[in-house]
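step: validate -> pass
step: tokenize input -> pass
step: predict -> running
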Amino acid sequence: MGGNDWEALVGAQSELAAVPAALRAGAEHMAAAAGQTVFRAGTRPGKIFWVLDGELRLVRRSRDGAEIVLQRAASGFAAEASLDSPRYHCDAVAGRASRLLAFPIRRFRQVLAEDEGFRTFWMARLAREVHALRSQCERLALHGAAERIEHYFESKGDNGRLELSRTRKAWASELGLTHEALYRALAGLQRSGRISVAQTGGKLLLTLNARRSRSRPLG
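step: predict -> pass
step: emit ->
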């Protein structure tokens, strides 16, 4: 991959500037169609993936068959834990047509051990992921669909407003709910006046009209 390509990539996603030349040389472009499985649980990791555009979802299935989204990456690294794992613990599915960079995992480990600056960058990203996963675990521990929706507002929203570019079905997966359960909960919250829902420009806009006191997400 030539320098001009990396100049364009860094221009589009500035965090890629932290990837050292020794690692850039082995990176490969990958295209994934919407719904395509990039890797499956139980297989041996061979690559570390960076999402250039699109969306990569790490998913498992709950006992009632609902898809639980463990991570949703629209940019940056995905499945960071696979670096030190002998097997993937979930599936990775492209939420929409996506472009990825794939770094050979052995080379990635070597560069991480040798390059202090890259190691610091990697550790900072892991810390942010731990915070996000703690919030996700707290949310999934809530039993009611309405409680999960309100928790999502608190951890992801901005002053009681939430803008979602994904479909309601995709959001249900992230909440660990069936889409039917999400629809029912949203309808109930709207009837009660707790939230307002609007659809504009392909995005779902939600406003939390009233708040109740609850514990903040961990982290």
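step: describe -> The chain has two domains: 3-140, 145-208.
step: cleanup -> pass
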